[in-house]
Amino acid sequence: MVRAPGKAMLFGEYAVLDGAFGVVGAVDRYAFARLADGAPASPFVAAGVDAARVLLAQDGRSIPHGIPLVDTRQLFDGAGRKLGLGSSAAVTVVAFGAVLDAAGLTVAREITFAACAKAHALAQGVEGSGLDVAAAVWGRTIRARRRGATASSPIEIESAGALLRGHDTTLVDTGVAASTADRVARYRALDRGDRAVARLLGSLRSVADRVAERPGDAPLAESVDEWNALLCELEQKLGAEIITPAHRRISELARAAGGCAKPSGAGGGDLAICFTPVDQADGSTPGKHACVLRARLAADGFHVLTATIGAPGLGPDHEPAASLQEIHAP
Question: Given this model, what pLDDT does residue 151 score?
Answer without folding.
Answer: 64
